[in-house]
Amino acid sequence: EDYSLLRDAAKMQNLSDDKESFCDLACFSRLEREFVSALCEQLETRLLYPGNVLMKENEIGNEMFILYAGMCKVAKGGIHLADLGNGVVIGELAVLGSDKRRTATVTITSLTLVYVLNGDVVHDILERFPNAKKIYDHEYVARLLHFELHKVKDEIEHLNNFYGKAHPMKTADVRKHIMGIDDDPTTLNSGGKSKKFAIEPPKEEESEFQKRMTQVQT
């Protein structure tokens, strides 16, 4: 098994020298060739092993990763979200946005070769290629909105589990289920027969002026 891992590592090392194929990755298909070539010149390659943590949720990061060959798993809050493979871009939200906290934990599950790009370098290159910057900005906003929607859904689910119901309830439901007041004029008595009752509005106390007027009239 160790020999197999070393052999695979040697193959990965050969792949790391193949920068031309980096430009052909699907994640760069909409971008200018010159822009991708400029990124390619700034690449750092890393060979990672099963169990290595590429990034950890809520930690600060300023690197983005292109998974060139291998596999990883993504988890958020300890819950498994996805398994990712060749050609995916990871960590771009922290690089492209103002919030540098990682949104998930990514753990390597097989021998993996990743290309690493420093966030400051990415921003410098984007400034030189305005068309690529527009595409990246659009992709970032789309990813951020998708992530924020998931955050909202998770928060609502958490509140529902904790409180029973997180979204607004009707007033009648609040009185019935929270305050224990049943405004329905029909209720069942112990014998199973329906009983009618009228809900009388609370009597208002007479004001001092009303009392005096009553005395004058009498």
TrEMBL record:
InterPro entries referenced in this protein's UniProt entry, alphabetically: CNG_cation_channel, cNMP-bd_dom, cNMP-bd_dom_sf, RmlC-like_jellyroll
Boundaries of every Cyclic nucleotide-binding domain copy: 27-143
Extent of Basic and acidic residues compositional bias: 197-211
Keywords: Ion channel, Ion transport, Ligand-gated ion channel, Transport
Location of region: Disordered: 183-218
GO molecular function, one term: intracellularly cyclic nucleotide-activated monoatomic cation channel activity
Domain of life: Eukaryota
Pfam families: cNMP_binding (PF00027)
Protein name: Cyclic nucleotide-binding domain-containing protein
Organism for this UniProt entry: Polarella glacialis
